[in-house]
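Quiz preparation item.
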C-alpha cells in the first residue's frame, strides 16, 4: 500500500524532542551593585559559584569610550572589551552585588595578554578555582588573532596565577588577501576557528577536561542564520592542558557566547544570538553530538547561570537563575535572569486560564518552590 505522503516540515517535526521539560521562557530583572555606570563597561559574566554561602561572579570590566578602528592611534580603545580586566563580585542573595576585586589584570608589555583579558568563565575543581578567558596582545587590529588563557587560585578572591602560555590559539590556517587591515578579505578562510577562539567554558567530563569555545573564521560569512559563529571543543587529560581540538569540530552550527552545563551523563547547552539553531536548548550525551531539545523565546544574552558542580537531572536546573548582560546602551551592565515555566505549566498542571489565575498561581508557586 502506498505510504501516506508527508511534508518536509512534518518529517522535521518528527525529529524534535516532544519532552516539555526542556521548554521555558525567561524573565530578567535589575540587580544592585553592578548597575549601569557612565564611563564603565561591565559585561560577559561567568557562571555563578556559591562558596560558603556567598555567591561569586567574574566578568569583563573596562573604562572609557570605545572609538573604533581607524583613528591612527594604536593605543586607542577600539571596542568596549578592549583594555579590559577580569573583575570579581560577591553577593549574599544573587540580587545585591558588591564589586570586590580585580581578579586578572593585563600582562606586561609584549606579553600574550598585554592588551586585554576578558570574557571569563570559572570552574571549581579539586579544591581550586580556574578562570578561562580571552586574551588580546597589542597592537589590536581587525586582523588580530585572539586566544584563550587560564589563571588559577586556591581562593575565589585570588591571588590568581596565569599559565605561561595561552591554553588555546586560533587555527590561523586561512590566508589573508591584500595588506589592508580587513578581516573579511581572504584568499582562503581556513577552519571555523581560524581567526579567533572566544567565550571559553571549562567542564570536567568522563575524567577529562572539555574546553568549549566560540570560533570566528577569517573572512567570516553572513548566512541564512546571521553571523556564522560556531562552537568547538578541545579536550585534555590535565586541567592545564595540553588541549586538543575534537575531530568533530565545529560541534554546533550556531551560537555566540557559550552557556553549557553538565546534565545527566552529558552536556546541555543554550545557544543564542547567531545561526539557524540560535535560541535553542540542546543536549549531547557524549558532550559533542548535540541535538535540539527545545526552541526558546527571548533567552538572556551572555548568560552565566548558577553552577552547582553536579550534573543536573532536571535540565532547567542548570539555568534556574544567573546573571547576563545588557550591552544595548553605551555602558554595558549586568542583570539577573530567571527561568520562567509559567506558560508551559498551564498545560502540564492542567490548570487552564479559564479556571482562573488563583488556582494556577498556587500551583506555579508550589512547582517553583520545589525547584529552588
Ligand atoms: C562577547 C563575546 C566576546 C566577544 C565580545 C567580547 O559577547 O562574544 O567577548 O569578543 O563579545
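Solution:
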Amino acid at each position: 500500500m502506498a505510504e501516506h505522503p508527508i511534508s518536509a516540515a512534518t518529517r522535521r517535526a518528527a525529529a524534535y524532542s516532544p519532552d516539555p521539560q526542556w521548554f521555558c521562557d525567561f524573565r530578567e530583572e535589575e540587580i544592585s551593585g553592578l548597575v549601569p555606570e557612565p564611563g564603565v563597561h561591565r559585561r560577559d559574566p561567568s557562571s555563578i559559584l556559591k562558596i560558603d554561602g556567598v555567591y561569586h561572579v567574574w566578568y569583563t570590566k573596562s573604562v572609557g569610550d570605545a572609538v573604533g578602528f581607524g583613528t591612527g592611534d594604536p593605543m586607542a580603545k577600539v571596542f568596549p572589551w578592549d583594555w579590559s580586566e577580569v573583575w570579581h563580585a560577591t553577593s549574599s542573595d544573587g540580587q545585591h552585588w558588591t564589586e570586590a576585586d580585580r581578579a586578572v589584570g593585563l600582562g606586561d608589555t609584549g606579553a600574550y595578554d598585554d592588551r586585554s583579558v576578558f570574557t571569563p568563565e570559572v570552574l571549581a575543581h579539586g579544591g581550586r578555582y580556574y578562570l578561562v578567558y580571552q586574551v588580546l596582545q597589542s597592537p589590536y587590529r581587525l586582523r588580530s588573532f585572539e586566544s584563550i588563557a587560564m589563571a588559577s587560585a586556591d581562593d575565589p578572591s585570588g591571588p590568581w596565577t596565569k599559565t605561561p602560555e595561552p591554553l588555546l590559539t586560533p587555527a590561523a590556517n586561512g590566508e589573508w588577501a591584500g595588506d589592508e587591515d580587513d578581516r573579511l578579505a581572504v584568499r582562503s578562510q581556513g577552519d571555523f576557528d581560524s581567526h579567533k577562539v572566544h567565550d571559553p567554558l571549562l567542564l570536567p567530563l568522563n575524567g577529562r577536561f572539555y574546553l568549549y569555545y566560540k570560533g570566528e573564521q577569517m573572512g567570516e560569512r553572513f548566512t541564512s542564520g546571521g553571523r556564522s559563529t560556531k562552537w568547538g571543543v578541545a579536550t585534555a587529560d590535565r586541567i592545564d592542558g595540553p588541549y586538543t581540538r575534537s575531530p568533530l569540530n565545529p560541534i554546533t552550527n550556531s551560537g555566540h557566547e557559550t552557556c553549557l552545563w553538565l546534565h545527566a551523563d552529558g552536556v546541555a547547552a543554550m545557544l543564542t544570538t547567531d545561526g539557524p539553531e540560535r535560541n535553542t536548548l540542546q543536549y549531547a550525551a557524549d558532550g559533542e553530538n548535540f541535538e535540539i531539545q527545545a526552541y526558546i523565546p527571548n533567552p538572556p544574552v551572555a548568560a552565566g547561570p548558577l553552577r552547582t558542580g553536579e550534573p543536573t537531572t532536571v535540565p532547567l536546573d542548570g539555568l534556574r537563575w544567573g546573571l547576563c548582560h545588557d550591552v544595548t546602551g553605551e555602558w554595558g551592565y549586568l542583570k539577573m535572569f530567571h527561568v520562567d515555566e509559567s506558560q508551559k505549566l498551564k498545560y502540564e498542571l492542567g490548570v487552564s486560564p479559564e479556571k482562573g489565575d488563583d488556582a494556577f498561581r498556587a500551583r506555579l508557586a508550589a512547582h517553583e518552590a520545589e525547584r529552588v
